[in-house]
Amino acid sequence: MPRRREPRPAPALELKTTRLAGIQVILNSAEHAALNTHLTTLFAATPDFFGGEAAVFECGRLPADAVSPDWAWLMQELKSRGLNPFAVQNASNELAAAAAKAGLLVLNAAAPAPVAAEPAPEPVPEPLPEPAAALAPQPATPVPTRIIDKPLRSGQRVYAAGGDIVVLAAVNPGAEVIADGSIHVYAPLKGRALAGARGDVTARIFTTHLEAELVSIAGVYRTFDTALDAAVAKKPAQIRLADASQIVIEPL
Predict the structure, then answer these.
(1) Sheet hosting strand 83-89, strand order edge to edge
(2) Cα–Cα dist 94/85, whole Å
(3) Where are the domains of the chain?
(4) What whole-number distance in Å separates Cα of residue 9 and Cα of residue 242?
């Protein structure tokens, strides 16, 4: 009988892109040692990936009695790695007070006071809808897949807005491939690949030779400061999200 795999413990913090606040820094721990260790590991391969993007600390996963992290230190650590944290959200009163003292905005929305319910007005009959055939939407024009057939050098970035991208040559270290859909690299992937850039958690990354610096799907990042598993290192592989929050890498 196969051994049941134990779930991996959550990292001290996670990074996720959002449309409104730039980067969301999800805190799973407030312990200084755990945060320091994970920050060092997370940014080891890509110390300058973020170019001053705004960031918000998400505190909703911290225990209600969690001791406040050293906000000033944590802010400085992230700034030194290209992030610009400016606020906290879903923080307890104690965490919010400490964050505000460190100069962070507090985005927790206070619950509105209850008000007495007023009698509901008499319902007004609404007009009948138009026949469905008359209101049928026109089919959307499909977004063509973007195809790149030349090697991408360090510093180059290509983006497929609204769809997939196919790369037929090497993505070299320092190069970046971004797509709102999935990414297909039929060559060595040695740079960075970011699929589902607008939040599509079903997007995937495929490559015939996995040797990437960083991958991301729907804003969930994974760097490769440690060696990849032998089953996928420099081999055909696919990368997807499990439970919309965890990067999974599998051989093809």
Answers:
(1) 13-18, 22-27, 53-58, 83-89, 105-106
(2) 19
(3) 13-106, 146-251
(4) 15
Instruction: Give mean pLDDT in consecutive 10-residue pieces for the chain, a chain of 252 residues.
Output: 58 72 79 86 66 80 85 89 82 88 72 47 56 55 83 88 91 90 94 88 94 87 79 92 86 90
According to the CATH classification, is domain 13-106 in 3.30.70.260?
A: yes
What whole-number distance in Å separates Cα of residue 75 and Cα of residue 84?
8
Please identify, in words, the CATH class of the domain defined by 146-251. mainly beta
> At which residue do the structure tokens 């960031």 appear?
55
Short-list 118, 94, 122, CA closest to 106:
94
Alpha carbons within 13 A on the beta-carbon side of 82:
11
Q: Which residues contact 191 (CB under 8 A, 6 or more apart)?
A: 152, 154, 171, 172, 173, 174, 175, 176, 177, 212, 213
Q: Which two tokens stand for residue 100?
A: 């505000």
The token pair that represents 151 in the structure block: 């090697």
